[in-house]
What does this fold into?
Amino acid sequence: MTKQEFIDAIAKAANKYASKYGILVISPVIAQACLESAYGTSNKAKHNNFFGLKYRKDRLTCHSGYFKDGSKEQKADGTYYPVTDDWYAFDSLDSGVEGYFQYINIERYSNLKGVTDPYKYLELLKADGYATSLEYVKNVWAVVKSWNLTKYDKVEKEEIAMGYTNSSLIDCTVLSPNHSGQRTHKIDRITPHCVVGQLSAERIGACFPNGREASCNYGVGYDGRQCLIVEEKNRSWCTSSRENDQRAITIEVASDKTAPYAFTNEAYRGLVELCIDICKRNGLNKVLWFDDKNKSLSYEPKDGECVLTVHRWFANKSCPGDWMYNRMGQLAAEINAAIGGASTSDVEIKVPNDGKTLYRVQCGAYKVKSNAENQLNAIKAKGIDAFITQVDGLYKVQVGAYSIKSNAENQLNKMKSLGFDCFVTTVNRADESFVPRKSAEEIAKEIWTGTCSDSRWDSWGAGTVRRERLAAAGYNYDAVHNAINQLYY
It folds into this structure.
């Protein structure tokens, strides 16, 4: 393989993987491979390790093992010293190049994402500790210049110049590290999803921690509150399609846990309002819904047009659920009514019910709290997640929260098969309050250990979130924190 052939091969693979990991320039990456592997002729290159990648357990997923080899490293005073270490091995040139992008896909190198200046990329890489050579930036840049490698960079002027903003409607921000950096296509799609759970905006945001390999731009909770999760300028990991995520704003919306995965009124309204805001800020004046995968994905939107897409077109999933899928045309019509000149408040947003009512399965109503707790424990012993609410002086033991009655009826049949005498009831969230089921000391221990007995959340959170969750669950914030101080300080 000639040097030019090696460069072309590395460029092809780098172009394939760079945007997946948020890297927008590949000329410095190509030059690194040339310098580190002597244009593919070094001993490490025999194992398709072209970037001098030392083995780090569980760091990469695309490698085939590791091997021992030596190298020289440079001290701050300029002197060199020999080292023998374990180095990654790869099955192919392609996986060797992806290995490089996986290697730098950690917090330490996160400042490389979105960089469009190749020399700046090298400066940051060196500052992050990638190489010990004091002249690393100078030497790699010399390769870039010698072979005119910047011709392989495909960042269009439009992408660099485009300014992105985030919605001012958001109620909270829970930023996920899971994204590919700045998107490489202008925004001309919106993709709603169902999150499969009647979650709050904060809880949706917490669904995408480091290592989850998934994210979205926004989340809309069951009450319509909105959360920013990945900034609009960045490509989220949401629809099982790199191409769609590069051009779409992706939105996870709270839904029932079972088909047809219905949204509450508030969640649907929150979705519509968010979509209107996205369109207005991004200069989109017409939203299209074709109800046809092939037509939607082959259509190239004109300036100002936006196409609605769905996750089920890219993966074997039902997302966004039949409830939302059957309303995609309605969603487009309501967005168009607003961006066509009417204000959001003047647009009639059609929702499936009164916006407050949920269906639940009730398994008892007691005047004495301990009796309700005994029933609660009996239900939980059967593996069913239940809770107690207090309405009109009664402690009611209930299961589920469904916006579609048939889903509640399915749960009812399951409960009856387990021997519980119960029925479906409608509840108004504004009329009920959740009842404490544990002492302040018990909740203090949960907070200290990072657990949460309330099925609505994975943890009690911190700061304002903790105060809100404790209040929503019926606990006294001050009493719980006094218990924490007494137990642990």
